[in-house]
Design goal:
The chain contains three helices and five strands. The chain is an alpha+beta fold.
Length: about 80
């Protein structure tokens, strides 16, 4: 279940691997961490909507490094 991945992951990599196994991934867009479906890239919701804002996750999992990839988009560069 996706909710348990967010609450139980101890690293960004663990969270991402669990999401990818369910056909999901994370994307950073316009200052928000977004949950997306990987087959079509459909945005599902922000992680804040699920109760796991970037600030909350960063306190537990560490700072997420980003690289600019467009005007409002960023690629996540460290999953460790």
């Amino acid at each position: 279940m996706t909710a348990s991945l967010f609450s139980e992951a101890t690293t960004w990599l663990e969270l991402r691997n669990g999401l990818v196994a369910q056909g999901l991934d994370l994307k950073f867009e316009a200052g928000r961490l977004i949950l997306v479906e990987t087959s079509f890239g459909t945005k599902i919701c922000s992680c804040r909507y699920l109760g796991y804002s970037l600030a909350v996750l960063s306190r537990r999992l560490g700072r997420l490094r980003l690289r600019a990839s467009g005007s409002d988009d960023f690629q996540i560069t460290n999953w460790s």
